[in-house]
Write a structure and sequence with these properties.
Low-confidence stretches: none
Structural class: alpha/beta
Number of helices: 14
Number of strands: 10
Radius of gyration: 20 Å
Helix content: 25-40%
Mean pLDDT: 96
Largest sheet: 4 strands, parallel
Shape: globular
Distance between the termini: 34 Å
Strand order of the largest sheet: 3-2-1-4
Length: 328
């Protein structure tokens, strides 16, 4: 799936072709219709964020946040390793929609295979005319730069990522005034989107924003990837309809998590990456939807579900999580 030939054989770069045949404003409208929420943790609507770029200010940039640092989260790494062309195609569609001619894919330093696969994918896409000058014979040109990080948790925050990209220490900027869409990379308008967010764009452009919005729940449209780990029979990354699937289904369904391993019972689970407050058995029937999870006292975050069985030393698990954040 990570090769250009296989990607093209399964419909790859058709979304980019369809996008380039339409005005950029239509692509922005399509993404707004899709109600595509950011998949990095904050859940901000992508189409709305794109509209924040100030008129007439050039150049502007697109930055794809692949610094997936939240413990328990590995959906973006799987996308970059297994489907790197989908990431680059999504980045190009985003760049075309917002009027950028330069995109950066920032990948966490420890993700060596992801960097390798993306580098090869970009080289092949450049050679095939899908990236670079006069893309697919049109008047749209865009370069995509692959940038490896050095492994700092805080760089997952968009302004810290921009600082790192500029060669500075990866520390967050003050917001305001540094909202990236207005003043980001090199103090120019910059759209920062998560890897999974842009990976949805080829499908949305090909099938239409409404088709995407028809999936999922009212406030959580489309599908979403969830990384399930810990004491489950089938750990892995699962794509389910956003907002309609429950934690019980995600953890116990035989096609998904497969239940608690070794016949043990559930003690607790982290619903959205290790910075999220923990849930217990009484929370299993909450849908995978940001509003419902917030209301119950936690957060969806990065979509990482870490399951702990009855043998877990909960105090020690808490200590390990807190030690990680203290260090970072």
């Amino acid at each position: 799936a990570h090769t250009l030939d296989r990607y093209v054989a399964t419909g790859g770069y058709q979304g980019l072709t369809a996008a380039l045949a339409r005005p950029p404003a239509e692509i922005v409208d399509e993404v707004r219709t899709a109600s595509l929420l950011g998949r990095g943790g904050a859940g901000f609507p992508a189409g709305v964020k794109w509209g924040f770029c100030p008129d007439g200010v050039w150049p502007r940039y697109v930055v794809i946040n692949g610094d997936e640092s939240e413990p328990g989260t590995y959906k973006d790494r799987i996308l970059m390793e297994r489907d790197p062309h989908q990431v680059s195609e999504g980045a190009l569609i985003c760049a075309y929609a917002v009027g950028a001619t330069q995109a950066f894919i920032y990948v966490r330093g420890e993700m060596a295979l992801a960097q390798e696969r993306l580098a090869q994918a970009l080289n092949d896409a450049y050679a095939a005319g899908h990236v670079g000058r006069a893309i697919q014979g049109t008047d749209f040109s865009c370069d995509v730069v692959l940038h490896g990080g050095a492994g700092a948790y805080i760089v997952g925050e968009e302004t810290a990522l921009i600082e790192s990209l500029e060669g500075e220490r990866g520390m967050p900027r003050l917001k305001p005034p540094f909202f990236p869409a207005a003043q980001g990379l090199y103090h120019q308008p910059t759209i920062v989107n998560n890897v999974e967010t842009v990976s949805n764009l080829p499908w949305i452009v090909t099938h239409g924003g409404q088709a995407f919005a028809d999936l999922g729940a009212e406030n959580s449209r489309g599908t979403r990837l969830f990384a399930v780990s810990g004491h489950v029979a089938r750990p892995g990354v699962y794509e389910v309809e956003f907002g309609t699937t429950t934690y019980r289904e995600l953890i116990f369904d035989s096609d998904l998590g497969g239940g608690i391993r070794d016949g043990q019972t559930l003690k607790c689970f982290i619903p959205g990456g290790s910075s999220a407050p923990w849930f217990f058995e009484e929370h299993l029937d909450i849908p995978l939807e940001a509003g419902a999870v917030d209301q119950a006292g936690s957060m969806m975050g990065s979509g990482a579900v870490v399951v702990m069985d009855e043998t877990t030393d909960a105090v020690r698990a808490c200590w390990r999580v807190v030690r990680f954040f203290a260090r970072e």
